Amino acid sequence: MKTAVVTGGASGIGLGIAQRLRSDGLHVATMDLNPPVDDDLAYRADVSDPEEIAAALTAVRDRLGPVTVLVNAAGVDGFKRFQNISFPEWQRVIEVNLHGVFHTTQAVLPDMLAAGWGRIVNISSSSTHSGQPFMSHYVSAKSAVNGLTKALALELGPSGITVNAVPPGFIDTPMLRRSEEARRLGGSVEEHIQRTPVRRVGTPGDIAAACAFLISEEAGYITGQILGVNGGRNT
Ligand SMILES: NC(=O)c1ccc[n+]([C@@H]2O[C@H](COP(=O)([O-])OP(=O)(O)OC[C@H]3O[C@@H](n4cnc5c(N)ncnc54)[C@H](O)[C@@H]3O)[C@@H](O)[C@H]2O)c1
């Protein structure tokens, strides 16, 4: 049985991915700032802290063996006019969304290299297609994640490891509802549904389905791709 790590697995998209991969028969450990207490495979780690990642990963390996599937879903958004973003605010968004992928991927990679097989899926954002006002730090970090995905795919392909990105758009999670509540969406979720080609909001399950495919054996010829899951809002 394969072992997967899902970062950001305590909420929203990461939680949906962890549930889906478990139901597909993988061992799944999650790493999150706020792990649920009732899940003994949920580990606390801040992805921007390499020591916390290393400690959690040691515990996961002891319990479940080498990790050959990694989904980087932990993320934080930010919403501020560019000229008002302080450098520490800029840095924090980059640290979590980009450096978090760096730290976690680098920590897990030895297991994949030893196995000669691995699957990495990075959850970026549809704002990398469209841009997004007042989210310049977030869009910068997520765009870099797409770039990292492409570069790593080329580097790791010869080692049997695929690396792909899924940029979600308009997925019903606590992050989206917080943005709605703070009136950052430019309309309610209901109003946005009318502007979405498939006429519904996305679910964590929609993103999880894409991840489940990308980590499957039959997706082994797919790497370095950015697979948008956004109801047709970005094409
Ligand atoms: N919801 C959407 O429409 C949408 C759109 C584009 C991109 N995304 C991306 O999808 C991913 C999941 O977002 P979501 O909507 O489920 O949000 P969410 O806020 O519901 O979940 C994010 C999870 O990440 C965890 N997290 C945050 N910072 C962390 C850190 N430093 N270390 C470890 N864990 C941390 C949080 O505790 C939380 O459990 C994020 O990367 C987000 O940027 C979401």
From TrEMBL:
Keyword Oxidoreductase: yes
Main location: secreted
Catalyses which reaction(s): a (3R)-hydroxyacyl-[ACP] + NADP(+) = a 3-oxoacyl-[ACP] + NADPH + H(+)
PANTHER family the UniProt entry points to: 3-OXOACYL-(ACYL-CARRIER-PROTEIN) REDUCTASE, 3-OXOACYL-[ACYL-CARRIER-PROTEIN] REDUCTASE FABG
Annotated PROSITE patterns: ADH_SHORT (PS00061)
Subcellular location: Secreted, Cell wall
The protein, known as: 3-oxoacyl-[acyl-carrier-protein] reductase MabA
Pfam families, alphabetized: adh_short_C2 (PF13561)
Keywords of this entry: Cell wall, Oxidoreductase, Secreted
Family per record: Belongs to the short-chain dehydrogenases/reductases (SDR) family.
Organism, scientific name: Nocardia mexicana
One Gene Ontology molecular-function label: 3-oxoacyl-[acyl-carrier-protein] reductase (NADPH) activity
Domain annotation Ketoreductase: ranges: 2-169
Domain of life, per lineage: Bacteria
